[in-house]
Amino acid sequence: MSRAGLAALAAGAALAAGGLCCSCGRDSRHVAEPRIELAGPAVVPLQPGSVPFVRARIDGGTEVVFMLDSGAQASSVDMARAREVGLEVQRHETPWSFEDTEGRSWPIEHYADITTIEVGPLVLRDVHVQVHAIAGSSSGGRFGTLGQDVLAHFALLFDVAAAELHVLPPDSTESSIRAYIAERGLGEGEWQISELRDAPARPYLSMTLTRDGSECPLLVDTGSDRTFFPKPAIAALGLSPVGTAEGRSSGGAFSGSVYRAEKLNWWGYGISALVLETELDHGVLGMDILGEFVFVLDGPGQRLWLHRRPGDDTEAAPADGTSDETDGTGGSAEAAGR
Q1: Cα–Cα distance for residue pair 296/292, rounded to 1 Å
Q2: Tens of pLDDT along 226-240?
Q3: Which fold has domain 180-336?
Q4: Over the stretch 218-276, which tens digit does the pLDDT of each residue have?
Q5: Which of 25, 106, 115, 180 is 20 to 30 Å from 98 by CA-CA measure?
Q6: How far apart, in whole angstroms, are the C-alpha atoms of residue 218 and residue 101?
Q7: pTM of the predicted structure, to 2 decimals
């Protein structure tokens, strides 16, 4: 792999490791439920970037940029930016720590309460956010992260090619999601639907590596622009390293090997991607793969919907369900044709 390619992977790895996962459980003292105002489905522009960013207005005034991070249990804002816009930053009374994608933990000592966050027609009220230093926020313009404490309330349709986020109301059902997709012409033909576990906190898929029959849990992480596999999965797939990548997250510096996964038979498509190695017992499904689909992250229904539009350049898996190299399928995927 070229040095430029590895540098890009390292930058992506830093994004991937930036999400906040509470190591003390979903504690109501720290993760509060926002009040939601949304009259109907809303379309919000996605800002340029390898992971999804949206513009928002906080407390009726300042316009900021949030990253949408399904791999983060709690929403957060950057300490310097919080003080810059005049948020009242307070110290937690009880200890709280977070883990990043690579399992490193660090303390979160501060929080703030935002009265309103407006994302297009969507209004979030009384949003409780963690406050800490977010790497690159000052240079990249990122104010903070909206995590699963917010995202899990909605069915979110990501159309990366069109740079659009479709926000469907919390009471959306499978039939109403299908009707909306059909009305907007967002994906004609078959959709693959996979069940998610632990979705209110962090959404996981179980992917079966058919070479040895083992299952690998993958965190569906819109905040990561790269996909990570744990070591047992890499061994089961027989992958060989093609290089290394180094990066830095809020938890510190890290490095890992890079592998080329060829023609993974996931959801009936032959998917090839560069993946990074992780020491954890689960992997991360990042936007390098998710972004190749139109996909719905359905928080209330705890499902992931995926659709590939005709004419894209990803090689489809053979009809018999086999692949030339490696093979994996969503453990609970079902075909959802229209």
Answers
A1: 13
A2: 899 998 889 888 899
A3: Cathepsin D, subunit A; domain 1 (2.40.70)
A4: 999 999 988 999 988 898 888 999 998 765 554 445 678 999 998 888 888 888 999 99
A5: 115
A6: 11
A7: 0.83
